[in-house]
Give the backbone structure.
Amino acid sequence: MAYLELKDIRKAFKGHVALHSLSLLVREGELMCLLGPSGCGKTTTLRVIAGFESADAGEVRLGGQEISGVPPQKRDIGVVFQSYALFPHLTVNGNVGFGLKMRGTPAAEIEQAVREALKVVRLEGVGERLPKQLSGGQQQRVALARAVAIRPRLLLLDEPLSNLDAKLREEMREEIKRIQREVGITMVFVTHDQIEALALADRIALMEQGRLIQIGVPADIYERPAHPFVASFFGRANLMRGSVAEVQGERVRIETRGGLQAIGRGREFAVGSAAVGVVKHERVQLSRARPLAAANAFAARIVGRTFLGATVQYACTANAESIGVTQPNVPGAECFEPGADVFVSWSDEDCLVLADIA
Amino acid sequence: MKRLAGSVNSLFLVLVYLFVLGPALVIVADSFNSATSFPSPFESATLKWYRQMLAHDEFLASMQISAIVALLSALIATALAIFAAYALIRHPLRGKNALSTFLMGPLLVPQIVIGLAMLQLIGQLGLRIGLTGLVLVHAVYILPFALRLVMASLARFEFVLEEAAQSLGAGRLRTLWHVTLPMIRPGLASGFIFAFILSFVNLPVSLFLTSPQTATLPIVMFAYMESRIDPLIAAVASAILIATAVASLVLERVFRLRLFG
């Protein structure tokens, strides 16, 4: 059953439409990630849920209750802000206890709750310090503790990891996941970082230009994008635009604009319709000799190579089509020099054919 | 070369300070001068002018009135400035610039005109010019100064902190009290102090609006100087100067704020 429900939310700012009739269901205890490029409306969605913005149209329901008219201070929704927004004039204890103080909780109970909240985020013994005396990671933990201390019905996180360095970001990612398990709280998390979304989310809602494009569990959304935008957003993918030349059940052959006859899997296509063949970079094989078994094998030339440590990336051209390839840097992996003539190949299962609507 | 530039810089600073504060220092020196006319060459040091000042009922009474008027009008002006600054900075108001200009209006009108206009207004409304009227008119006159300072500190305030407070359950008023006001306290304090000083030393606005019972210190000083000029007036002026300086220093320490620069 839906715990948080957004129904046909519309929001415009001075003529610019930020959200076009957005609908979204979040289950209780779920960690939902709103993912998308900047300006896609994900932060606006979060602000509508928190009550900082009111939608022009539509409904927001939490636990079955319509809350559109409820001011933010009465929603019982915890928010972790991108900038943390810790109160600079209050100590860590003052910050974490703020919500309970506003609720008129007795001082002794506040003290107890603050201690517990700081324990949950593994930040003990800094209660008397001011936020500016803490590191970025510690401030982040205080912000989390402050939001969970009020035992909110829902926790919203707005790009909470974007101000941390790479190593700390990974650590906090695990922390947020652990806290979510321990506290059992429903979370909506906004990010533009696909890795963060894939690693953290129970489900991902991918947004673009104020619309929800696809929603699903991370593996699904990665493996089975429903839209060329989704395919290009996750990881690195070759998008080959063209038109459908032949359909045999789910087996679809497309003739790409770059002059390849690519075979892939797709549904409900008519011959002649515009389509995109999507192949992830890591699903493309490189070989010196023409592979016999592959459904798709094309003569190509290496035009660029980038060494990335764990992987090596190649840029190739096959006919007029640019094909990117990512190969794992494992023992025995063959190395190709730029300028070399090779074959690129992939199986028909790794080539997803989508309707070209973008 | 660098050192030369440094000393030229310091010399310049000293000259600027002398230019600004020099006349005031001359007054302070005069207040300790035993010569009976003013100004005159320094004869010998004495405290008799200060003793006379403390025995002068009119000066003492007017100091009290000035202090009350300044305190009340500065409180009113600062309170109004908080709401006005908040509205001007936080909310996308229609006619925001017009409102801002309107609130800054008293800066553009000669003070003597404010006093005269208020006198006429109060007269036409058939009201009596009492202490209340004086306080309100002072509040109008000092509002722009308080507003400027409060706006400056509110402009640096991060409004996301208000959203954080709201999400934690604080309504508008409690957010203002627990988060916004504590954060802009330096601006409030300096706005209040400037407003207080401007009211305390104001002559032109008060000129038309005081009766013998509500004569403020500058009015009494002005009247005194019309009849005679002796170093007693220098002693009164120096007392104001010293009190202001001491008050500013104390407040700078207490609020850890820089009032002047």
